[in-house]
Specification:
The complex is a heteropentamer, with 2 copies of chain A (221 residues), 1 copy of chain B (251 residues) and 2 copies of chain C (274 residues). Chain A has 221 residues and is an all-alpha fold. Chain A has helices at 5-46, 50-65, 68-78, 88-114, 117-125, 130-160, 172-183, 186-215. Chain A is built from 8 helices and no strands. The radius of gyration of chain A is 21 Å and the shape is flat. The relative contact order of chain A is 0.16. With 251 residues, chain B is an alpha/beta fold. In chain B, strands 1, 4, 5, 6, 7, 10 and 11 form a 7-stranded mixed beta sheet that branches. A two-stranded antiparallel ribbon of chain B has the order 2-3. In chain B, helix 2 runs antiparallel to helix 9 (236-245). In chain C, strand 9 and strand 10 (244-249) form a beta hairpin. Chain C is globular. Chain C has 9 helices and 10 strands. Chain C has helices spanning 48-55, 100-109, 125-136, 141-154, 170-183, 200-216, 227-233, 251-256, 261-270; strands at 10-19, 22-32, 37-41, 63-68, 90-93, 110-113, 188-192, 220-223, 236-241, 244-249. The longest helix of chain C has 17 residues, at 200-216. Chain C has 274 residues and is α/β, with parallel strands linked by helices. The chains are: A mainly alpha (221), B alpha/beta (251), C alpha/beta (274). Chains in contact: A-B, A-C, A-D, B-D, C-E, D-E. Chain A binds chain D through residues 1, 61-62, 64-71, 73-74, 77-78, 81-82, 103, 106, 110, 148-149, 152, 155-156, 159, 162, 173, 186-187, 190-191, 193-195, 197-198, 200-202, 205, and chain D through 1, 61-62, 64-71, 73-74, 77-78, 81-82, 103, 106, 110, 148-149, 152, 155-156, 159, 162, 173, 186-187, 190-191, 193-195, 197-198, 200-202, 205. Bound molecules: adenosine-5'-triphosphate (2 copies) and magnesium ion (2 copies). One adenosine-5'-triphosphate is lined by residues 19, 22, 24, 42, 44-50 of chain C.
């Protein structure tokens, strides 16, 4: 393979621009909202009320069982036919948040279950309600175990955001495709895009390590 | 599309041009096409056999060369990469000739010559020409020539994967216009007569669409050109064109 | 030992609890007077932990009554006040419907020390101790911290106040567990085998702390396998088996000269004389 | 949304056909090979040899850090330029196996690490070598903990195989696109495809439950 | 107790081990004669477990020699044969380079019983016991199973042979752990606090089994905190602290009338006299 290095160099700007204006904000916004949603869904799944936990289970099953592309399409192209017309960015953020919500809910649920029952009881014995014990005792501990699996969800999300180009959100991969389409250098541009994604993921992974270290300060090594 | 392993010609970049002899010795012409671009390349009834204007012409060309046409269906993203990787002998997918492509690939003589059109909603009178696209929003396939054209006209261009999405955006009022080739639009209105769309303007220049080959496949291009000329003169191209468009767009 | 008054701090009558079809407690009666120590002994599965959990509102009994008296909180000799509302007596009848609010009122009167400490691993020693008083009882932080530091000092752990639990030995963790319970100023301290998860050498330190609390006049119910300890400390020893009380009485009698055969057997086994 | 039910009904055959001839065999083959690869990579990651574990770490980082689409692209369209020309199916299976290998390696590594050290030692004390202890003692226990996270990888794979159409492998989603291109009813077809994926995932999830139950027979409930 | 012969089954000289800069063992000497029981006692962190782990090849010592004698395997009075090659003596000098093969030969001579049992949770009781003899020692399955069943019967667990470990109590699990070690027919049994993870009531059963093994003539090194038990069983008691042997001698002397102050302190602490 021989590459047109000038092209690669000159397209680095648009690619990084796409990452900064599209990929990264889209990832961060969707992940934050998705986590909140996931926490709610995880708590619903853990509810003793069969209807509540059934709804949550159904949601998770649909989100995980169907392609993200279809989810995006339904929200952007499908909802207008029932009168709900959302702009590309809101559509994308909603779709990705719903997706993260489904995947991360299972992670968070498992993390909550992994905190020993004795911690709930210790919370109760100092007078805490279920809610207080959840917030002050259980979730801080669940956070620690859920960082590695959530970082998987996060890293997948970074790359999945490329699908947003299907609903008119311009991001890293779309810019690569654009340059590729005009220069006909598909392989070079795709490799370049992959390299940019890789750098983003490397940065994120080191952020993950830092976070883990911070959360691990109260654990024996 | 199975058995793509029987690889197409390994024609030379350095040595002699064996593009034609390779095709002849294999007895097949490996043709890349999307298979999802009606009426040029699509599946009969949605899941039947591959057909369409480009497909039929490619078959006719192969027959003239005395070989079988073997189609490889791929997404547009992979179509040129596959040609460069020599997984295909040629592309039959309404590839319009432009300077960038000409620099990298060889082209046959065009077999589709047709104008581009601006499609708008039937009740929209604000767009009457390419000049009036300025400041409007259009939806274009990234890989089509019309993307550039719309951009040059000052439109705010949204890239989409294909015609179906572009038209959905237009009908939902999310874009003001779609610039595409006329033939696709005509085919669409045939199946969706009540779409509420219209042609607002036509391009002055007609775009020329042709088969694409790897650079240096001169012998093969020559043979295909000869076949196309024969098909033109014996009326086959016109017949195929009439079948799909009710008009002769092949010249 | 301080003098005791006549109304018990804790009065349990006919307590019953089943898990599904497994009847775990039947007809448990219990009276604990102010400043007294009751030791609960019995074989594994006899229901000792379940009794404590019912008293602390961690388990909902199926029947019976639990009354926690109107007497002052803290050690019998102490004078510290607790959050409003605990000064009146509380009586729950589990034969009738008991609300969540009543359960939590019951829970507020007692504090539990767990076999496995159950410290909050993400909080420092001081945070573990002050969490309940500050966040739940809403007492002023400065006062709570001062009191917590005094208590930590008493069990010899003041210099560990900023350590995390994992940095402590088991014995140190359990002493923090005890301080966490004390900081709540409960009327009643519940200990569930507080030393049985400890290294043998570390048992002594924890038992010493508990002994001092008893001498100060705290009212306590202790589940323990340390018979020598129970003999020294307990005012009353209750031997349970199969969810019922088999034998009860002063420590010296029940442990030295048990009347029931099951009690004799149990005591012999525990001293593993072979 | 009003649907052309005739179209949906008539296209069910091709979609299911695509699942049976493309999606499902591709998923099963790639997952099996990917698991073997993942086990090797996981063991390499756990190796005390810095070079060996470094190679494995690099592999995992590249696989997880770059888009699957690019990985497919490189193997199918890129390798021929250096003289390696693979057929679509082998290319797809290799690409997806490599991908599974990267993701599942981390799961397996974590699962192996989650088996208490005392199990290795008990193995040694009855005379086992490291390899024997790994195979007879550690892996059977690691299998149990890794089923839920691996099933996530598996379910993602089912849907990711739709990318195989980029390299000429016909599967479920490609068939849906074909029908959509002909009928211009892409929303209906995409939803239908999503429904088929969902059914596949539901079936897989129940297989997962069965497997978990089987592996859980030696654990207190 | 059976008569002993003069060459020790195990002879350790000047054993040393450090983890990084933390010197954990220094100059440990140990002679264990056939059919004798040596009890290792000492405070937490003194290095007792590390000694056993070095003897079982789970830890690589930094220096010193370990010799396991050429005497017959199994209990001193027994006659069962073990796989070929163990009948000759083995002597490892950790001052020089020791190969993995030698370490595994050392490991083959002894068997360890762990504090936390470390049974294989995915195997039944019988599989746990037969795994080593069948898969590692390659002895015939039928013979191994018969022997395993005999041993399980001896500790009263024959009817549990198809149960999984999680279905057993701690005491039952530890008895399986002992049988798993016995089934290997080692020359030397190593016990690392075999009862300290057990419920107090279950301790007796396990101690009884160990006592019977001693009476049968097995050669053993036991780390334990059960001083009463050590006093009854051990031929020699070794008190370690800070990685060195502080005091050693007949059980009656070391435990009843320790000479060293550290030993006295330790013994007092363990009996938590307060
Ligand atoms: N949450 C629960 N669900 C079902 N059964 C339970 C539960 N908690 C306890 N039990 C059962 O109740 C009985 C008494 O248990 P409990 O823990 O009170 O005994 P214990 O006397 O504290 O024993 P130990 O000395 O082992 O701690 C046992 O048979 C136990 O299996
Ligand atoms: N793998 C290891 N890495 C580093 N240090 C270790 C390791 N194993 C043991 N140590 C250290 O070696 C010292 C002796 O430990 P060892 O477990 O032998 O003591 P012990 O006498 O068995 O104590 P206990 O009664 O608590 O079991 C301790 O300081 C311990 O921290
Ligand atoms: Mg209990
Ligand atoms: Mg130890």
């Amino acid at each position: 393979m021989t590459f047109d290095w000038d092209l690669i160099w000159s397209s680095l700007g648009p690619l990084i621009g796409g990452a900064i204006k599209g990929t990264i904000p889209l990832t961060l916004a969707s992940f934050s909202l998705g986590l909140i949603l996931a926490l709610i869904v995880a708590l619903m799944r853990l509810s003793r009320n069969a209807v509540v936990s059934g709804v949550a289970r159904f949601y998770v099953s649909v989100i995980r069982g169907t392609p993200l592309l279809v989810q995006l399409f339904v929200i952007f192209y499908g909802l207008p036919t029932v009168g709900v017309k959302l702009d590309p960015w809101p559509s994308a953020i909603i779709a990705f948040s719903l997706n993260v919500g489904g995947y991360a809910a299972e992670v968070i649920r498992a993390a909550i279950l992994s905190v020993p029952k004795g911690q709930w009881e210790a919370g109760h014995t100092i007078g805490m309600s279920r809610g207080q014990a959840l917030v002050r005792i259980i979730l801080p501990q669940a956070a620690r175990v859920s960082v590695p699996p959530l970082s998987n969800t996060f890293i997948s999300l970074v790359k999945d955001t490329s699908l947003a180009s299907l609903i008119l959100v311009t991001e890293l991969f779309r810019n690569a495709q654009q340059v590729a389409a005009f220069s006909q250098e598909f392989m070079a541009l795709y490799l370049e895009a992959a390299a940019v994604y890789w750098v983003i993921c490397l940065v994120l992974s080191s952020a993950q390590s830092l976070l883990e270290k911070r959360l691990d300060r109260y654990v024996a090594h | 599309s199975s058995g793509a392993g029987s690889s197409p010609s390994s024609s030379s970049s350095g040595g002699a041009d064996t593009s034609l002899s390779d095709v002849q010795s294999k007895g097949e012409l490996v043709v890349a096409t999307e298979g999802t671009y009606k009426p040029f390349t699509y599946h009969e009834g949605g899941s039947g056999s591959l057909t369409g204007y480009d497909v039929e012409i490619a078959k006719a060309v192969a027959a003239k060369l005395g070989v079988k046409a073997t189609f490889r269906e791929t997404q547009f993203d992979g179509i040129f990469a596959g040609l460069e990787a020599k997984r295909f002998d040629m592309i039959a997918n309404q590839i319009s000739i432009n300077p960038e492509r000409s620099a990298k690939y060889d082209f046959s003589t065009p077999y589709t010559i047709s104008p581009g059109v601006i499609v708008t909603k039937a009740d929209d009178n604000s767009i009457t020409s390419f000049d009036s696209l300025k400041g409007k929003t259009t939806a274009q396939s990234l890989t089509s020539n019309y993307y550039k054209l719309a951009q040059q006209s000052g439109a705010n261009v949204q890239a989409v994967e294909g015609w179906a999405q572009a038209i959905a955006l237009l009908r939902q009022g999310r874009v003001d216009a779609v610039v595409n080739d006329k033939l696709t639009y005509l085919d669409y209105t045939k199946t969706n007569p009540n779409a509420g769309l219209k042609i607002a303007a036509e391009t002055a220049d007609k775009s020329k669409n042709a088969f694409a080959f790897h650079k240096g496949a001169t012998a093969l291009v020559k043979a295909v050109d000869k076949a196309l000329a024969d098909l033109q003169s014996d009326g086959t191209l016109t017949k195929i064109s009439m079948k799909y468009f009710g008009a002769d767009v092949s010249k | 030992m301080l003098p005791t008054n006549d109304t018990p701090v804790l009065q349990v009558r006919d307590l019953a609890k089943a898990f599904g079809s497994n009847v775990v407690l039947r007809g448990i009666d219990l009276d604990v007077y102010r400043g007294k120590v009751v030791a609960l002994i019995g074989p594994s599965g006899s229901g000792k932990t379940t009794v404590l959990r019912c008293l602390n509102g961690l388990e909902m009994p199926d029947g019976g009554t639990v009354a926690v008296g109107a007497s002052a909180e803290g050690p019998a000799g102490g004078s510290a006040g607790r959050s409003a509302g605990t000064s009146s007596g509380l009586r729950l009848d589990f034969g009738a419907k008991v609300s969540g609010r009543e359960i939590s009122a019951l829970r507020d009167r007692s504090a539990m020390v767990f076999q496995h400490y159950n410290l909050f691993p993400h909080m420092t020693v001081l945070q573990n101790v002050t969490e309940g008083p500050i966040k739940v009882q809403k007492r002023p932080r400065a006062e709570v911290v001062k009191e917590a530091e005094r208590l930590l000092d008493r069990v010899g752990l003041l210099e560990k106040k900023d350590a995390y639990p994992f940095e402590l030995s088991g014995g140190q963790q359990q002493r923090v567990g005890i301080v966490r319970a004390l900081a709540l100023k409960p009327q009643l301290l519940l200990f569930d085998e507080p030393t049985s998860a400890l290294d043998p050498e570390l048992v002594g330190d924890v038992l010493t702390v508990i002994k001092e609390l008893a001498e100060e006049g705290w009212t306590m119910v202790i589940v323990t396998h340390e018979l020598a300890f129970a003999r020294q400390m307990a005012d009353e020893v209750i031997f349970m088996d199969g969810g019922v009380v088999v034998e009860r009485g002063p420590a010296s009698e029940v442990l030295r000269d048990p009347q029931q055969e099951r009690t004799q057997q149990f005591v012999r086994r525990l001293l593993h004389e072979f």
